[in-house]
Amino acid sequence: MHKNWISLGLMSGTSGDGVDASIIKTNGINTYELIKDKYFEYDSNIYKDIHNLKEKIHKIEHLKTFSKELNNLERKITLFHAEIIKQLNISDETLIGFHGQTIYHNPEEKISKQLGNGNLLNQLTKKNIVYNFRSNDILNGGQGAPLTPVFHHLVSLQYKVKLPVCFLNIGGISNITIIKDRDNISNLFSKDIGPGNCLIDAWVRKNSNKKFDQDGNLALTGVKNEIIFEQAQELYTNRNSKKKLSFDTNDFDISFVRGLSLEDGVATLTDFSASIISEELFLSLENSEEKIKEILICGGGRKNKVLIRKLKENLTKNFELKLIDDYKINGDFIESQAFAFLAVRSVLQLPISFPNTTGCKKPCVGGEIIKN
User: Fold this and answer.
1) Any residues with CB less than 8 A from the CB of 232 and at least 6 apart, and which?
2) Same domain as 305, residue 185
């Protein structure tokens, strides 16, 4: 009989708008039970600082150049997380899986930098903290992402999802997990497949006072620019002849739609993002030995009705796209629940990434543990 842990996962995604918090009960292996999900929105200063700094940091040297600003922001983000932990009023034994805010991710340079000071959070909360989840994978030849596949596998077990199945997570970046085997987690396959919401969000932030395109409403009122769309597709195909396993939002830029109105830019970028996701998805599923029919969509992008409609149109009738919410799971909190689960696996010294999920040489444990 395996011990059950109570664990709190704190996840701030590439949209940088706030923190998803999830408390779960799990043995770190094959069971979990949700206790609570809650979202905490960043104040406007933290939100602006995250996006201003992300726009300045395009290579590893920039981390040094802007180290003072990064340290200030890291402190603010850590204090914000400490406040969340206080508000949630959790027991002393609760383990904390602290992802932090990704500010720069480049596996070729052997770096994935998340803002979030684990030692400071430990001092402020007097809790056991697990953080820095990606570095060990990168040190072992992996891409440091995606890390959620092992949790997707647990979800498929817990909710008796019919296998084989593909999870499609549309966050800032889109990634997939293909699950074929109920028993052997080393048979998981995953990779990033392109932009998710990052292009649409960046355009909306630059050209309005909104943070994202709510429900795809802006895309609905805009018109796709066919010429720009086709040029962008061509550029993307040529640039990505060398396939990457994981992406940072900085791998994509929106300069090709400049000059368009807010709405037309959103419509064009939504079509463009949908075309890349569906093409990469189709290729990955076609190449899979098992014939996968069901695709479960999670992440914030699943709420963009236009993006989802375009995906369904592009993927034709070969696949059944379903929202993970159809299984009575809130698709907003998969990643925060995942980091609660990964924190427990870290303490148990169980692998969180595998050669077929991140490209690491061997199954890797991850996460630094700061004991109280």
Assistant:
1) 256, 257, 268, 272
2) yes
